[in-house]
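Residues determine shape. Next comes a sample protein:
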Amino acid sequence: QVRLVESGGGLVQAGGSLRLSCAASGTLFTLAPMAWYRQAPGKERELVAGISSGGSANYADSVKGRFTISRDNAKKMTYLQMNSLKPEDSAVYYCRIARTTFWGQGTQVTVSS
């Protein structure tokens, strides 16, 4: 059974950093591309960053140069390092096995100005 559990969200001041983690269970992880999405109140869920099974990464323009996605296949973990956070980064952040219906429950990130 596939399960994704996010952690690491919280409240941080603008300019600060947070590191989100996504723990995966099941056998799909090591072969699957992973992604982080976010959804702010009243807005559509949007792709923040994605990473292939081999570690190639892509980012939304709004987070390029500030966020870094990474993964540890041995531990079945995916990470999102978020630096230079802005109030507009505030959202619920979700981990997903890319192009599947497997999502985590989300973790709240709030950036105060």
In short: The radius of gyration is 13 Å. Strands lie at 3-7, 10-13, 18-25, 34-39, 46-51, 57-59, 67-72, 77-82, 91-97, 107-112. DSSP finds no helices and ten strands in the chain.
